[in-house]
Amino acid sequence: MSAWVGNSLTVCCVALLASLSIGEAPRPRGRGETLEAAGAAAAAVLARAWQPHCCVILLTDGTASTHAVVKGVQQLPAPWGTTVLETRPARGIPNGSVALLGGALRHALVVRRASWCVVVVVVSDNPSFLTKWAELAIESGLLAWPTRLVALTGLPTTRLHRIHLAYSHANAVLVVSDGNTPPRCGVWVHQPFSPPNARAARTLFPDKFHKLAWGPTLVVAAEEYPPHVLINEAGPGRDYILTGPMEKLLSILSAQLNFTYTIKRPPDGSWGVLLEDGSWTGMVGMVNRKEADMGLGPFAVTTIRATAVDYTRTILVDYGRILAGSGKPEVDPWGFLLPFTPGVWLAFLAAMAAALAATAVLASCTASQLMAPPSWLNGRALMFTRVALQQDVSARGMRWWERLVLGAWMVLTLVLMRSYAGTLMSLLAVRQIPQPFQDLRRLLDDPDVTMVWEAGSMYVQFLMAVTSGIFREVREAEGLGRLVFVKTTDYNRVLDQMVRRGTHAFVGEYLSSRVLMANDFSASGQCDFYASRAKFLPFMFAMVGRRYSPLVPALSARIGVVTEAGLYDSWLDAAIPNDTSCVAAPTKVTVTSSLGLVNLWGMFTLLGSGAAVAGLTFVGEVLAYRL
User: Fold this and answer.
1) Which stretches are transmembrane (predicted)?
2) How many CB atoms neighbour CB 168 within 10 A?
3) Which end of the chain is more exposed for a tag (fewer CB within 10 A), N or C?
């Protein structure tokens, strides 16, 4: 496609002037300056795809004359000003031009952040300058997908192959001028993942990542992460076989964006943490070093990881919980106190006090003295206590109203004791299943239990950065040998050999805990593990791509459709068989078995304590009588 000189447009921006250069290339004799020859063509290109409120940044390589720069600015009218970045050679300074170019890009970023949107116009006949500038601009974020780029050059097409890779991943068009008078300009649009000599010019600034025209093969970093991703070996020299909800999502993305993929696992089997030397491990490191085009994950969204990779739209939200082994069913030794609540026991004592008070009042009304003697009240109190303990009492010598109060008390005691006995017999058939670790505090307070966390995950990064609170105590527990890290591929071994024995407790995402409990139930038919009630460290999970990669917004758009339709949640439910069997497992079970001292030691403890108090009281009475 060709565009002739002609149109103009209005732009607005702040004025800025900088000087630096990668180097100069000699211009062929007899040809006009590229900026002067192709400036109007750039204006025509922008006029056909202009966005309101955008400003223009004009960047040259220092070879353009002042006259050409002024004319170029006039061809791009800017009533509020234009940003001009003009480069000069940095002679005699090793790598000085690259450093200065980075400084100019920082100035351009300042303008970008202060503007609604930006259109960058770069002019050069130096292929090294065009390539290096584009690479640095993409890495700095200046050429993120919303920013449009128009590159002007007078180079022959045979020398433009080097710039293909950088410009194919930017929202860019390349205007090539033949330098004649009048000039004729060709427009190139580089497609992503296409051969260097491929071009398409039917649409200016197309959404090149809506559907990848060349059907590339992308490298996807992935690691096993039940229930999201399961990885099976396909055989020597063959790719891995993925299953799980994330594989279904990746298949949809592959079909929608028109790409195939190969799976590459991280050497250390981790998600990725930042090391002290500034490098990244795991899948995050692979994407950051451009060893992979995207990371499958899903990855927890953290601030520090966002400095190395870009996140797609959120796929799900999960929380951390404790997974520990359930104890053996046992009888509560103090269960004989449970048939009545504390309120019932207090009401029972209040009723006894009321019966004694009524007896005392009636005795005072029928006797010559106003108050009953203490010895008489003590005898009546002892009588009511004997009734409560289901012992015999004698009613000889009692008046009718005393018999009436005593009878009412006996009826009340009979009803309560019958209810107590029946409820106690039911409770003795109930076994309690201990689940002691319901929060991190209880786990930390038990010195005999070791915590197991996921290696190379966001939890590790968080524990490395925390400076106070309970999570700092968790990190300090590593020095005491109470904190170990394992890979996701070792979860089943850890559950069966460590957590089941009660010496370890797993701390991780709730979904992982559900998968482990469901798999164990499917194998054994019983719930030997439980997840804590307390939740902590909520995280959003998403896929990752390279920084400022236009592929990430394209992936996010499709992921949003899948998650909003509820497909991913449905895939998760289908991927966890017997999921609900142990999620809300009962903490009490009913059994039929004989009772022994191990189960009833609480009763005997109370009986022995009462006998000891009675013995001490008897000894005290004997000593008091002799003295």
Assistant:
1) 343-363, 404-430, 450-471, 598-619
2) 19
3) C
Pairing of strands 316-325, 504-509: antiparallel
Q: Which tokens is 582 given?
A: 């142990």
Hey, what amino acid is at 279? S
Average pLDDT, the chain: 77
* Neighbour count for residue 386 (Cβ, 10 Å): 13
For 38, counting Cβ atoms within 10 Å of its Cβ (0-12 exposed, 13-18 middle, 19+ buried), the class is buried
Query: Which SS3 state, helix, strand or coil, does residue 79 take?
Result: coil
Express each pLDDT in 237-256 by its tens digit.
567 888 899 999 999 999 99
* 13-65 pLDDT, tens digit each: 332 322 233 333 344 433 446 666 666 777 777 777 666 677 788 877 766 66
Residues 494 and 463 sit within 8 Å (Cβ to Cβ): no
Q: How confident is the model at residue 285 (pLDDT cuts 50, 70, 90)?
A: very high
Pairing of strands 316-325, 430-432: unpaired
Which residues are paired to 121 by β-bridges? 58, 150
Q: Return the bridge partners of 55, or none.
A: 118
Q: What angle do CA 453, 319, 315 make, to 5 degrees?
A: 110
Classified as helix, coil or strand, 164 is helix
Q: Residue for token digits 């950088």?
A: 166
Residue 472 has a CB neighbour count (10 Å cut-off) of 12
Name the CATH topology of 2-188: Rossmann fold (3.40.50)
Alpha carbon separation from 201 to 43, 45, 134, 162 (Å, rounded): 16, 11, 20, 19
Lowest mean pLDDT among 159-173, 207-221, 384-398, 511-525: 384-398
- Rounded Cα distance between 303 and 527, Å, is 38
State the pLDDT confidence band at 12, using cuts at 50, 70 and 90. very low
Q: How many angstroms separate the CA atoms of 537 and 204, rounded? A: 46
* Range in 158-162, 195-199, 272-276 with the lowest mean pLDDT: 195-199
Evaluate whether 136 touches 22 at the Cβ level (below 8 Å).
no
Residues with Cβ within 8 Å of 431's Cβ and at least 6 positions away in sequence, in order, are 329, 330, 331, 588, 589, 590, 591
Residues 6+ apart with CB under 8 A from 240: 222, 231, 232, 233, 234, 263, 265
d(CA 420, CA 414) in angstroms, rounded, equals 10
Closest CA to 283 of 265, 306, 301: 265
Tokens of 447: 């010195």
User: 374: burial class by Cβ within 10 Å (0-12, 13-18, 19+)?
Assistant: exposed
| CB of 387 closer than 8 Å to CB of 413 | yes
The answer to whether 146 and 140 are in contact (CB under 8 A) is no
Q: Per residue in 488-543, pLDDT tens? A: 888 888 888 888 888 888 888 888 888 888 888 888 888 888 888 888 888 899 99
State CA 116 to chain mean position distance. 32
The partner residues of 133 in beta bridges, in order of sequence, read none
Give me the sign of the Cα torsion angle 159, 163, 167, 169.
positive
Provide the token pair at 269: 């089997």
Structure tokens of 495? 């559950």
First to last CA, the chain: 125
Token couple for 619: 């000894």
DSSP one-letter string for 300-319: E--TTGGGTSEE-S--EEEE
